[in-house]
Amino acid sequence: MATVDGRGRGVGDRAALGDALASLLAGTTELPASELARVVHVAGRVLGASAARMLVADYGLLSLQELGDDGPRGPRRLIEGTLAGRCFASGEIVVAGDGPVTVFVPLAEGSERLGVLELTLPAWSEGLRSVVDPVVRVLVLVLISKRRYTDVVLRARRAEPLSVAAEIQWALLPPLTYSSDRVSVSGILEPAYSIGGDSFDYALNADSAEFGIVDAVGHGIAAVSISVLALNSLRNARREGHGLEAAYLDAGSAIEAEFGRSAFATGQLGRLALDTGELTWLNAGHPLPLLVRDQTFVGRLACPPSIPMGLGGAVKAVATERLQRGDHVLFYTDGVVESTSPDGEAFGVDRLADLLVRSAADGTSPAEAVRRLAAAVLAYNRRPLRDDATLLLVEYHGPADAE
Fold this sequence. Notes:
Elements: H1 14-28, H2 36-46, E1 51-57, E2 63-67, E3 72-78, H3 83-90, E4 94-96, E5 101-109, E6 112-121, H4 126-147, H5 152-156, H6 164-172, E7 177-179, E8 183-190, E9 198-204, E10 208-216, H7 220-239, H8 244-259, E11 265-273, E12 278-284, E13 290-293, E14 296-300, E15 319-322, E16 328-332, H9 334-337, H10 349-362, H11 366-381, E17 389-396
Antiparallel strand pairs: 1-2, 1-6, 2-3, 4-5, 5-6, 7-8, 8-17, 9-10, 10-11, 11-12, 12-15, 13-14, 13-16, 16-17
Helix pairs in contact: 1-2, 1-4, 2-4, 6-7, 7-8
């Protein structure tokens, strides 16, 4: 098997890099899907590492866990306060030691963060980065192609037992984050291991970002059943080319037909035109979204509420807001701001807005911003959440640059 010198010798030799990539593919393509840890070891050997391990982010995005032969291996590492966590949060390579060195490399599918690759190398040089980057990109593609057929990664993501309701909701979600030159969309669910009726969805199409966030009445499987029906009805309407009003009515009719008037879901549906920044959205009984512009909290975006989906109501209004380059719009469920500290004080809109402004001012990526916001809610409560708390952040980067 061809390998790249761990000290970076031969970097810049296209033939050597090609041999390394070919060796990675040859050494991993025929491996069974369940042997993802071996896939990682092959990548490590190609890079000249004496040891290689993949650290998988848990559902709550609070810790990293080594991927073993059949699930998790070894102790968990917190994202906060660790080198591996710094790599995950920043999306940058982190190097520790003088020789041998430990190198942490972010693993991501586009903007969707998968975890961290930890390598033990004889030494590190910036020249080696030009080899690590393409090898890791190929490694990610191999991992993604194989993980669909095995439970190994999903087992490693569990920092605690996942409820059946949460299992259903996580299987329903799109990737937590998408980012392009024109828009980023990032969401998160809490409590990650026992989420019930909260969920979100989005799709990036030719000229728009379309999204929805829902909060179904009740808890557990009963709430999940309503949420699943609502979200898939909204997806169906979107894919059939229906507008926001038709999607709202379709979802309401589906819930009412299945559950009667005893079930409903609040929600918000939106569409962002990527070339113009025009945001149109419909509010079905949710807290109003927050707008941060130029690192300043502008306020809540107003929209007269239609009644929750499933209660037989008509659309009261569709709101419009023209976003500017760099604007952040945060949609959230009531469990975020209504969660309380042990002394009974609510987390509140002001605290949420302040944290969002800080993230914008720091240039924090949308994925990391929602992770930190959710972590702040959990830390504020200091006990299990009594209501679901979901965040969906839309950041508009502006129209495509004129050619």
